[in-house]
Amino acid sequence: MQNRAQGEKRLLREIQAIEEDSRHNPDPDVTAQLVHGDLRHWIGRIKGPVGTPYEGGYYFLDIAIPEEYPYVPPKMKFDTRVWHPNVSSQTGAICLDILKNEWSPALTIRTALLSVEALLAAPEPDDPQDAEVANLCKNHPEQHAAKARQWRDTYAADKNWPYEAKVKNLVDMGIPADRARAALQKQNWDVNAAANECFGDM
């Protein structure tokens, strides 16, 4: 129980540090938010590294944090589809040593996101998560880069957090943003249920 409390205290410090960084830098290379206020479930966002086919894209990752954190790594996968040899083009699973056997309690969620960003910039097709992508990367690098850019333009063009579109829907109905966000969280992000709650209170 004490370890769980210590882990959650650390997670709170980590998310506060990320939020503070975002206040000073409105478009950081990596950032994260809690999902529905849950310290054990985050959504991360990575900017596509400059000078790569991913540049200009915004890639979202689902981050599930186990009870044993920081002694075991977070579980990360891409929510945004990405064409990369070390990421499954089907499931978003990531092949990265620090998310497996090279994890250390000294690392943080932010450093893990930075490592994923570095992986986008320096793919390792000889240790692939997706064999089809790796083959194209090794044997036809120009075709690989073109497909990565195509997927970037198709899937990674929007930098807005997935839940913010739902908040905007309610704001467009005349509901204040703070009230809209609170109602959506209470109603598990169901727009219709949140709208009914807000208008029922008016």
Automatic annotation (TrEMBL):
SMART domains: UBA (SM00165), UBCc (SM00212). Keywords: ATP-binding, Nucleotide-binding, Transferase, Ubl conjugation pathway. Residues 6-157 form the UBC core domain. One of its GO terms (molecular function) is ATP binding. Gene3D superfamilies: DNA helicase RuvA subunit, C-terminal domain, Ubiquitin Conjugating Enzyme. It holds the Pfam family UBA. The keyword Cell membrane does not apply. Residues 156-201 form the UBA domain. SUPFAM superfamilies: UBA-like (SSF46934), UBC-like (SSF54495). The active site is at residue 95. Transmembrane segments: none annotated. InterPro entries: UBA (IPR015940), UBA-like_sf (IPR009060), UBC (IPR000608), UBQ-conjugating_AS (IPR023313), UBQ-conjugating_enzyme/RWD (IPR016135). Belongs to the ubiquitin-conjugating enzyme family. This is Ubiquitin-conjugating enzyme E2. The lineage of its organism: Eukaryota, Sar, Alveolata, Apicomplexa, Conoidasida.
